[in-house]
């Protein structure tokens, strides 16, 4: 009989062994997943997460675990988050019991949704889907190699974003929302918060905000920053986000040329890999990124807790 409870210190070693095995298997299936991790650091981390980690047992043996951190910010509701190393289970029934117990705790903490990352294949996704989870976004990875940089169309140029660009950048954000199937109006409060975040990004020395300009208008953008250390990702990885091209110049190679130049900068600065995420509802992005060379690794699943 399977039982579930929150993690106790003497469970930590068994959970670490499961994570090490799972990450190794993920890397075997997806070579752009980094299997390396420091087991002792992971062990110490787990010891500090006892109240947010659930462990499943069968006859005294650990048969699964589920970690979920409840997080939120001024522009997003509270949600529980599970990383690729945050869940393991011997079968779908074990996952069902882990999710049942953890969800009750997340709801009490005010979380409205649960997001969980898992390997991007049916074998890993189906047990979650049977519980009502649906794919939301995909993480793709590419190794940075020297390559030809395609030229932007005549009359367009790439430069660093400036504070004066913010209003046009906000309009490009709306283009992303429409592509993702979320064209709803952003509230004045949210728009103010996004504007403030963008201005803060421009002042962050680790963040690079590129824009493509033509006739004095901002027609495309990309934002990059060094990816923090994260299990499953390689060191010296650049995160590429907020890539968007205005509809008036789509279909002319603007995105490819812009990203070529951005990643050439990154390679020269010592980055070895690039990661990006895209929504599964964004058909343009779902087609573009694999065609450009990013290989899907993990998928983010979502389920309502209300």
Radius of gyration: 21 Å
- Distance linking N and C termini: 29 Å
The CATH class assignment of the largest domain is Alpha Beta
Structural class: alpha+beta
Query: How many distinct beta strands?
Result: 14
Shape: elongated
Describe the largest sheet.
10 strands, mixed
Identify the quaternary structure here. single chain
**CATH T-level topology of the largest domain:** Aminopeptidase
Q: Which percent range describes the beta-strand content?
A: 25-35%
Order of helices and strands: EHHEEEEEHEHEEHHEEEHEHE
Commentary on this structure:
This protein has helices at 12-29, 39-47, 92-108, 122-129, 166-179, 188-203, 254-268, 283-292; strands spanning 2-6, 53-58, 61-67, 69-73, 76-82, 87-89, 113-119, 134-143, 157-160, 208-214, 217-226, 237-245, 273-279, 295-304. α1 (12-29) packs across α2 (39-47). The protein contains eight helices and 14 strands. The strands form two sheets. The protein has a ten-stranded mixed β-sheet with strand order 4-5-7-14-8-13-12-11-10-9, with helices on both faces. It has a four-stranded antiparallel β-sheet with strand order 1-2-3-6, sandwiched between helices. The mean pLDDT is 93. The protein has 306 residues and is of the alpha+beta class. The protein folds into two domains: 2-139, Aminopeptidase (3-Layer(aba) Sandwich); 157-271, Aminopeptidase.
């Amino acid at each position: 009989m399977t039982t579930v409870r929150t993690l106790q210190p003497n469970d930590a070693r068994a959970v670490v062994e499961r994570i090490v095995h799972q990450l190794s298997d993920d890397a075997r299936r997806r070579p752009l997943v980094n299997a390396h991790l420091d087991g002792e650091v992971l062990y110490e981390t787990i010891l500090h997460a006892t109240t947010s980690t659930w462990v499943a047992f069968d006859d005294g043996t650990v048969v699964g675990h589920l970690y979920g951190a409840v997080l939120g910010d001024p522009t997003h509701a509270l949600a529980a988050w599970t990383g690729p190393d945050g869940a393991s289970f011997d079968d779908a029934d074990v996952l069902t019991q882990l999710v049942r117990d953890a969800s009750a705790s997340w709801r009490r903490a005010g979380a409205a949704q649960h997001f969980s990352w898992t390997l991007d294949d049916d074998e890993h996704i189906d047990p979650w889907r049977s519980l009502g989870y649906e794919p939301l976004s995909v993480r793709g990875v590419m190794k940075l190699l020297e390559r030809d940089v395609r030229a932007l169309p005549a009359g367009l140029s790439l430069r660093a974003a400036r504070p004066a660009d913010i209003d046009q950048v906000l309009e490009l954000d709306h283009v992303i929302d429409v592509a993702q199937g979320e064209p709803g109006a952003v509230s004045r409060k949210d728009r103010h918060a996004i504007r403030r975040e963008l201005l803060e990004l421009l002042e962050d020395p680790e963040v690079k905000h590129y824009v493509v300009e033509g006739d004095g208008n901002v027609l495309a953008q990309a934002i990059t920053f060094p990816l923090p250390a994260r299990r499953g990702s390689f060191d010296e990885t650049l995160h590429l986000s907020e890539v968007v091209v205005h509809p008036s110049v789509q279909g002319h190679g603007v995105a490819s040329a812009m990203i070529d130049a951005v990643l050439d900068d990154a390679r020269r600065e010592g980055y070895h890999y690039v990661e990006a995420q895209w929504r599964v509802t964004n058909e343009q992005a779902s087609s573009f990124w694999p065609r450009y060379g990013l290989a899907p690794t993990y998928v983010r699943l979502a389920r309502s807790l209300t």
